[in-house]
Design a protein that fits this description.
The protein has six helices and five strands. By secondary structure, it is α/β, with parallel strands linked by helices. The chain has a five-stranded parallel β-sheet with strand order 2-1-3-4-5, with helices on both faces. Helix 2 packs across helix 6 and helix 4 packs across helix 5.
Length: 177
């Protein structure tokens, strides 16, 4: 990695993309978001808690928890939200529902949000849905899924860069007391 890229990675708002379980498409989501949001430091945290915790430490701007509508994935995503919330109580957490149309994704998100509200007294944000769109070529995902991920990346990038600018800091810097 070139020196400038390392500097960018240090100063850019860090967005962690993780999942409660394998098979949710976390790698694809992280790769597409990273490519579409060059001002962010998008890190794939994977599905293992130790890897996610390492990616999050010492701080991050946002966690995008990737899930599907499968009940096991929903349960695993709730567990991920609970673990991240316990360790990083001020963190911003949002759910991305992969391989789902918007209506079904909202229902899936609502399951996670109801559990988080009831058991953790917390709110989890909704980042959006990525439609199931398998490409017939070697890229793996189709144009509608890529478009949804690019839209998500654009929104997250604008929010994080605006949030950083609003605080009067360069991306990645923290105020000291």
């Amino acid at each position: 990695m070139p020196r400038d890229a390392n500097l960018h990675a240090i100063r850019a708002p860090r967005v962690i993309v993780a999942a409660g379980m394998a098979g949710t498409g976390v790698t694809t989501v992280a790769t597409e978001l990273g490519g579409a949001a060059p001002a962010l430091n998008v890190i794939e945290g994977g599905t293992r808690w130790a890897d996610i915790a390492e990616a999050c430490a010492p701080g991050f701007a946002r966690l995008l928890a990737v899930t599907t509508h499968d009940i096991v994935a929903v349960t695993a995503t709730y567990a991920l939200v609970k673990m991240v919330r316990e360790r990083y109580p001020e963190s911003r957490i949002e759910v991305v529902v992969n391989c789902s149309e918007e209506r079904d994704a909202l229902r899936t998100y609502e399951r996670i949000q109801v559990a988080a509200s009831h058991f953790l007294n917390e709110t989890v944000g909704y980042a959006g849905a990525v439609p199931e769109d398998v490409s017939e070529n070697s890229e793996g995902i189709g144009p509608s899924a890529i478009l949804a991920l690019q839209d998500l990346a654009t929104r997250v990038e604008a929010e994080e860069m605006g949030h950083t600018a609003a605080r009067g800091l360069r991306a990645g810097e923290r105020r000291t007391a």
